[in-house]
Design a protein that fits this description.
By secondary structure, the chain is α/β, with parallel strands linked by helices. It is built from 13 helices and 15 strands. Strands 13-12-11-10-9-8-7-14-15 form a 9-stranded parallel β-sheet. Strands 2-3-1-4 form a 4-stranded antiparallel β-sheet. The protein has a two-stranded antiparallel ribbon with strand order 5-6. Helix 8 links the parallel strand 11 and strand 12. The radius of gyration is 22 Å and the shape is elongated. The structure holds phosphoenolpyruvate and manganese (II) ion. Phosphoenolpyruvate binds next to loops.
């Protein structure tokens, strides 16, 4: 709620009257003409606007159209490294973890000719166990950038903490915020301040509104755009790694008109179901896919069971029914 004050208003008294209604002032805004408005945060009990309008000193009360106005106004297309995400299907693929320069190079060289616009891979890995492989760190970022540049690709890679924003933003065309960090608000603010586009993965138990509000944090902090990524939520059934919520994908794509991509790899946790779920995701309205692949999945240091063998990626991409080189041509990369 935006509460505009009369020129003569006593700000303290208005704030006190709002507090008596259970409302708190989140920010004070002053326009060039010196008119003051109070941005009032959400409260536990709904308060009618006309009750607030009757407080002495209040000139007008307006309700924002959306609780996430910047997300609502963003639009369906986000530009990342010169590639339009949201216009036509965009493919992102690569290993779960950047393990070695050879592995990253082999992935980029095989994926670029398939029309995969973005090379993915984690240099910093969020692992459930502290004893599991944590990523190679900074060298991995360099391998990704170099391999992408050699093959006319863009880079999407995860930033895990505030101190990582600088180095990751230096190499990434699209900063990835992982599921486990979707509501790490300090990280969202720091990542947004890099003023780059961000791929925001949905947390495994986040509602759609929480996901959109996390996107609002990024845009309010300066991100140039947010691409949403559905990667499966926690269900009661353990027969697949997660539950791929294609209903939420359709909602974001068709109702909110936002760019949403699907990561079927982390959703399913097993490679055999990834082709079917990739096609389902595109049918639901996803504007792209993020798929994990590995030259030798049996040797992968993380997420081997869900990695598509690099040699099988051509068959998978062909089965998607999207123009194979469209994404790369738009990116201005080698055809
Ligand atoms: C990833 O994409 O590397 C990853 C860790 O995914 P998520 O955050 O969805 O678990
Ligand atoms: Mn993974």
């Amino acid at each position: 709620m935006i509460v505009s004050l009369e020129g003569s208003a006593d700000r303290g008294r208005v704030t006190g009257a709002l507090a008596a209604l259970g409302l708190s002032v989140a920010a004070v805004e002053e326009d060039r003409a010196g008119s003051v408005s109070l941005v009032v945060g959400a409260c536990s009990a709904p308060v009618e606007a006309d009750v607030v309008a009757r407080i002495p000193g209040v000139r007008a009360v307006s309700m924002p159209r959306s609780v996430h106005p910047r997300v609502s106004e963003q639009g369906a297309v986000v530009l990342a490294g010169g590639v339009e995400i949201g216009a036509a299907p965009v493919l992102m693929a690569g290993p779960c973890s950047a393990e070695s320069e050879e592995q990253v190079s082999a992935c980029a060289a095989a994926l670029a000719p398939l029309g995969v616009a973005f090379l993915r891979g984690g240099a910093f890995k969020p692992r459930t166990s502290p004893y599991a492989f944590q990523g190679v760190g900074l060298p991995g970022l360099r391998w990704l950038r170099d391999a992408a540049d050699r093959n006319g690709m863009r880079v999407v890679t995860e930033v895990m903490g505030e101190s990582g924003v600088g180095p990751v933003a230096e190499v990434a065309d699209l900063l990835q915020i992982g599921s486990r960090n979707m509501q790490n608000f300090a990280l969202l603010k720091a990542a947004g301040a890099a003023k780059k586009p961000v791929l925001l993965k949905r947390a495994m138990s986040a509602t759609v509104e929480e996901w959109l509000l996390a996107g609002e944090y990024l845009l309010a902090s300066g991100a140039s755009g947010v691409v949403f990524c559905e990667r499966g939520i926690r269900g009661f059934d353990t027969s697949t790694r997660n539950l791929l919520d294609l209903g939420a994908v359709a909602l974001l794509a068709h109702v909110h008109k936002l760019p949403v991509i699907v990561d079927p790899s982390h959703a399913m946790g097993r490679r055999d179901l990834i082709p079917a779920m990739s096609r389902a995701a595109l049918a639901a309205g996803a504007t792209g896919l993020m798929i994990e692949t590995h030259p030798s999945p049996a040797d992968a240091r993380s997420d081997g069971p869900q990695a598509i063998p690099l040699a099988s990626m051509a068959e998978l991409v062909a089965s998607l029914g999207i123009p194979p080189r469209a994404a790369l041509r738009r990116a201005g990369g080698r055809a």
